[in-house]
Structure formats: structure tokens, C-alpha cells
Specification:
This protein is of the alpha/beta class. The chain is built from 5 helices and 8 strands. About 10% of the residues have low confidence. The protein binds adenosine-5'-diphosphate (ADP) and magnesium ion.
Length: about 170
């Protein structure tokens, strides 16, 4: 019995639910590598133009996940947080545009950085601190919410509402 509880707690737990066409999945990770691997799985499935909105506090794992996204897209460069530059661009067959909205004062500043152009450029947009710009996302945005459950445990909740962001493969993992 104890073994079962232990197993359930420490195993990665995945719960699917389909509500109103939304697909939601919860994943528990126990270290940074596991979070990266989840990002990588998603990155392998993403289609050009996909937007991944990352929500969660400082240190929750958003950059680690984005590092994985880059790997999944075949981008072989270490991704760093773009806190001071707002956006970092990583070229590739499908480029990655990595945003960190932490220092954005208002959603209107998005126009200054050319958000609409980024959406049209056939890359994947990964957006840290999406809380700051939640009005800017279209309905088929993939949402990943990160919660720090203490220690090295993180809960990732992935919500997808459409399939257009995911047409690169059916084996997208998350
Ligand atoms: P954020 O971008 O959300 O501010 P980072 O990915 O930059 O967060 O940092 C996450 C920090 O938490 C790193 O120092 C990492 O080593 C640590 N960490 C501990 N456990 C995990 C985990 N399960 N997933 C991701 N990061 C973790
Ligand atoms: Mg970060």
C-alpha cells in the first residue's frame, strides 16, 4: 500500500480531461531535466506559428521548459532568459522566438516589439510571464502553467484548445 502511494506520488502523473474541446494534462516533474524533457516532447510536435504561453512564478521552470522546446525543434543552442531584451531569436528550420514579458509595462508595448510580425514569421513563440499579456493570445494558444510544489517538485498543467499548433506529429508527448 505504502509502495503504491509512493509510486503514485513520485511517478509522473498525467491526467487528461476533455472539456469544451480543451485538452488538459497535468505533469509532475521532480528535477530540471524532467521539465526540460517535457518541453522537448512538446517542441517535437509543434507546428510553425504555434504559440506557447508560459505562466508561473520566478523559478517555476519556464526557462528550463523553453530550453527543452528548443531542443525539440532541433535548435542546438543553450537558451537563456531574455529578461533584459524581451525577446531572443533562435534560427532553425522552425525558429524559436523566446519572449520574457516580465519587464513589459503594458500590453500595448507588444506592438513596439513587433508581436504581430512574430506571429506571422512561421516560428514557435514561447512566452514567459504571459500573465502580463494574456489579452494578446489567440484561441489556439497552448498554455502551460507552472507551480512550485516545494523543493524540486513542479506541477505543469498543459492546456490545448485547438489542433493547428500541433500538426507536426501525432507523437507530441504532452
Ligand atoms: P523560470 O524561468 O520560471 O523563472 P527557471 O527555469 O529559470 O525558472 O529556473 C528554475 C529553477 O528551479 C532552476 O534553478 C532549476 O534548477 C530549479 N528546479 C528545481 N526543480 C525543478 C523542476 N522540477 N523543474 C524545473 N526547474 C527546477
Ligand atoms: Mg525564466
Amino acid at each position: 500500500m505504502v509502495k503504491v502511494i509512493y509510486y503514485t506520488y513520485y511517478m509522473r502523473v498525467k491526467i487528461f480531461s476533455a472539456r469544451n474541446g480543451h485538452k488538459e494534462m497535468t505533469i509532475i516533474t521532480n528535477n530540471e531535466d524532467e521539465t526540460m524533457r517535457e518541453g522537448e516532447k512538446l517542441g517535437r510536435a509543434l507546428a510553425p506559428g504555434a504559440v506557447v504561453a508560459l505562466f508561473g512564478d520566478l523559478g517555476a521552470g519556464k526557462t528550463a521548459f523553453t530550453r527543452g522546446l528548443a531542443a525539440g525543434l532541433g535548435i542546438d543552442v543553450r537558451v537563456c532568459s531574455p529578461t533584459f531584451t524581451i525577446v531572443n531569436e533562435y534560427p532553425g528550420e522552425i525558429p524559436l522566438f523566446h519572449f520574457d514579458m516580465y519587464r513589459l509595462e503594458s500590453e500595448s508595448e507588444l506592438f513596439d516589439i513587433g508581436w504581430d510580425d512574430y506571429l506571422e514569421r512561421g516560428g514557435v513563440c514561447a512566452v514567459e510571464w504571459s500573465e502580463k499579456v494574456s489579452g494578446a493570445f489567440l484561441s489556439d494558444t497552448i498554455i502551460v502553467n507552472f507551480e512550485n510544489l516545494g523543493g524540486d517538485t513542479r506541477r505543469l498543467t498543459v492546456t490545448k484548445s485547438g489542433s493547428s499548433s500541433m500538426d507536426r506529429s501525432e507523437k507530441g508527448g504532452v
